[in-house]
Structures are given as structure tokens and as C-alpha cells.
């Protein structure tokens, strides 16, 4: 029997690299976590990875998120900070002015002028040249330490350009907890002043914030941006939830009741704004009738969810798109926002059933999709975009801009929360060293000890996994930290008595009595917390995003709920590209 060629043994690591290269040649590899020897030059692997993006015949990483990757020295310094003792900050430290994080000379990339006379290749070359010049200009005016991470993929920006072009109204969605940090004034000025289009700001997830704070943020935006229309919204009003909205320690626990149902109050608010904009140019009666039917409809837990028709739009740049307002009597609303603000969930809540896939992982929506809400109303869902800003990366992580699974150092984000919330009390954890002084690392170790997170080899406390768990709880709103507008603390009585509070409670589907009882119950929990014997500690085992088994018997999950509650330890790395120099993506 002939002897075959003897194979040379190699390690498991070498085998993984071999499989990566094989998949890369086949054209469906996941984005690589790129290592580079210096800040200015890309490695051979990263150059190959970027060149594959430029090939129009290859769709490798075409819509991948591309962010900056910290150096080893930056990681080491941040870990040292996380080991320092926590110093609680004053209430006023939560008050921010969003305009401070968006300087006027830090703009977002806009589509360059073009015409039907240009060929596809000429247009593509023109846009690539413009984007390269844009990044070079940002690099010259700002250092990488001054600005936060922002989207470096031209293909993703092209999605935004297309949505803005075809939309009659731009719907910009923000998370109420970090609303000012998520709102780029440059986009507002571009849409309202340059394009002369209407701009609606949606304050989403208002069920996570007190009604007085929601009203204060609405007043803040109305004062700063006079031409803006503001809608308050939540995809989980009270009638869509099971049980109370907080556990015995004061952590937010939101469990959706059965299948997806229309958020009728929020949809009604959006309809009223759209009617004031379009007037009699578009017939919105079918949308209005649909909302009224939902408001009068008795909820049926066995109601089937039918998936609506979704039209996936692909960008084909064969010339300029001349926008015709209310073309064919159809109102087109573009939904734009940063990752994880709830754009896709909002579309599902307005429609009343699952029509767009959702996920907690940033970058899940790869290209924009359109659905017809009614025959005369069309919604366009744009992928989440991280706009250039001076927002620190720590806050960007808490906002959901950066995938938690990709964090190399999550402890400083935990430190930011712990300096503003009493995490040891909320989590009911004991100090791992029986000390009185807490640090971010101590909190992570205490949570790892409570949850039984141990490393595989040495069976030490898995601080990294615990930190990721805490950040996912913060992202989901279970650990709820809300930033506030300037001078909010000194005027809290004024905002609590504001007339708009009743409207917020109506959208949240809460009565004033329920809101008051929740507030009193929370205060009582905080007052009696130190006298607790710890018998309620098992309740926290239902709080982690990946813990599906603990809540399976309590929640009748819908078809898309598995996507909304992804396993924390198996979160996909797909769609992420990192590099040492954030401006090197477009340089040879």
C-alpha cells in the first residue's frame, strides 16, 4: 500500500489560522480582529482584508462595523484606573450639555454632488476619494484621543445617504437615557437647513426614565433646536409587560407579555406630528383607523404574529436620485439613529407585529429595509451609525455603540456606573476581600463570586465575564442610569409638576397612581435594604441577559424574542473590524 505524505504536526492555534485563511479565500470570512505593529501602518493581513472590501465582486465585510482598537498601553492604563477606589460623584455630574460633545468643526460625511451623467465606476471613485479626504481632515483637526470611536465604513454611510435622499421626513431616534449624547446637531442642520426637510426626534425607551426627566429632555431639545418635532415613545408600554417593573432591590426587570403588540399611544403621537407636517397632501386615514382599532382591541395572548412584507433595498448607484416629495401620494419616513437605540423595535411596535429583525448586538441591521405601514405610509430602517463626536468610549459602551463582546477592557465602564449608582447595594454582593473600600474590579469579582463565574483552568473568579454581564444589564436597562439636562436637579419640583407628565404616563400606559406607588416602593426598598437578610438574592439570577432558563416558565416568548435575548457568552463577533489607526482604513 503506497505511503502518503507524512503530515507535520501543528498546534490548534495554527489550525485556526489555517481555517481563517481558507474561509477568507472562499469569500465569507468574519471580519478579522486586526493586529498591527504600529499606529500608522497596517499589517499584510489587514491590507488584504480592506482590499477585499474594495472589490465590487466580493462582499466580504461590506457592511462590517469598523472601529478603532486600543493599544496595549491604553488597556494597561485603563485597568489601573479600574483598580482605584470608587469616589461617588455628585448628582450634578449627571447633568450634561450634548452640544459640548459635538463641536461645529466635527461634521459627519455627506454625499458629494453627483449627476446621472456619471457612470457607476466614476461615482464610486468620487465617493471613495471624498471619504478619504474627509477622514484625513478629521485626523488633522483632532487626535484619536480627543474623539470617540465612529463609523469608518463607507458602505454604511452610503446607507444613510440613500435613506436621507428618499425620505420625506427624517425620524431620528435616541435612547432617553443618553439622548443628548446621541443627537448630532450637524445632521439636524443638514436636514432642516440644506435639504429643507422635516426632522422628527423620537425620545425612545421612556419607560426606563421618570416622567419628569422625559419632560425635561423634551424641553431641552425644543429650546436648542426650534425647528424640531419631538415624539415620546416606548416599545414596551405597561400593557405589554408582565408584573412589576423592578425587583426587590430596585433593578429594572422588564418582561414582555406574549407576542409583539402595537404601542398605540406612541404611534398616535407620531401620527399627530405627521398629520401636522403633511396636512392634506397625503391621506393618513388608514393609519389613523389602524391605531384606533388597536386601541379598542381587546388583547388576545394567543394572537398569531404574521410577518409583514419586507423589501430589502440594495444600493445601485447609477446616477443621482431626484427626490419627489410625497411621490404617488406616499409618505416616506426614514428611521435613523445610533446602534441599539431601538429603530427596528420601534418599526415593529408601530406596525404591531414583527416585520424587521432585531438584536442587541450593534451592527445587526446591515442594510436599510423598507416596509409599508399602510398603503400610503412607508418606513425605511437605516443601519445604526456612530456619528463622529467627542463622547468618551466609556459612555459609548454604555450607550450601546460598541459591541460589549468586543471590549478588551470593560472595567472602566463598570467604574463609571458604580460612581453614580450604588452597585453593591443594587446587586447585593459582598466584598471579595471583606474590605470597606470598593473598586470597579472588586464589584466585578463580587458579582463573579455571586454568580459562580470561574475561569476554566485555574478556577479563579472570572472578572471579565462578570463585567460583561453587568454591562449587558446596564444596556438592557436592568441597571438603569439616566443622564440629565443642565440644571435639572435644581428644578426637579418644576418638572415633576409639569403638565406634560400626564402625557408621558399615558404613553407609558401608566396611571399617575401607579407611577407614584412605584416611586414610593423604590424609596422603601432603598431605606430597608440594609436590614435585608439576603433571602431575596436568588431574584438576581433572572436578571442577566443570557439567563434564559430562569425566565422560560414566566414568559411566553414570541418568535423573535430569542434574537432580543441573545446568549451573553455566545454573542457573535460578526460585523466588527478593528485596527490600531482608525484613519488607516482607507490608506494603502
Overall CATH class of one domain? Alpha Beta
Q: Number of helical segments?
A: 21
Report the uncertain regions: 28-58, 298-321, 521-588
The span between the termini is 52 Å
Shape: globular
DSSP strand content: 5-15%
Summarize the helices and strands and which ones pair or pack:
Layout: H1 12-26, H2 44-54, E1 65-68, H3 72-82, H4 120-141, H5 154-166, E2 169-175, H6 179-182, H7 185-194, E3 198-204, H8 211-224, E4 229-232, H9 264-278, H10 285-296, E5 311-312, E6 331-337, H11 343-351, E7 369-374, E8 377-381, H12 393-399, H13 411-418, H14 423-427, H15 440-451, H16 463-476, H17 492-496, H18 500-507, H19 512-528, H20 549-552, H21 561-564, E9 576-579
Parallel strand pairs: 1-9, 2-3, 2-6, 3-4, 6-8
Antiparallel strand pairs: 5-7, 7-8
Helix pairs in contact: 3-13, 8-18, 9-10, 13-15, 15-16
Organism: Cryptolaemus montrouzieri
GO molecular function, one term: GTP binding
Protein name: Guanine nucleotide-binding protein-like 1
Structural write-up:
This protein has helices at residues 12-26, 44-54, 72-82, 120-141, 154-166, 179-182, 185-194, 211-224, 264-278, 285-296, 343-351, 393-399, 411-418, 423-427, 440-451, 463-476, 492-496, 500-507, 512-528, 549-552, 561-564, and strands spanning 65-68, 169-175, 198-204, 229-232, 311-312, 331-337, 369-374, 377-381, 576-579. It has a domain at 95-381: P-loop containing nucleotide triphosphate hydrolases (Rossmann fold), CATH 3.40.50. Helix 9 (264-278) packs antiparallel against helix 10 (285-296). The strands form two sheets. Strands 4-3-2-6-8-7-5 form a seven-stranded mixed beta sheet, with helices on both faces. It has a two-stranded parallel ribbon with strand order 1-9. Helix content is 37%, strand content 8%. The chain is an alpha/beta fold and 588 residues long. Mean pLDDT is 76; it is low at 28-58, 298-321 and 521-588. The chain is built from 21 helices and nine strands. A hairpin with a 2-residue loop joins strand 7 and strand 8.
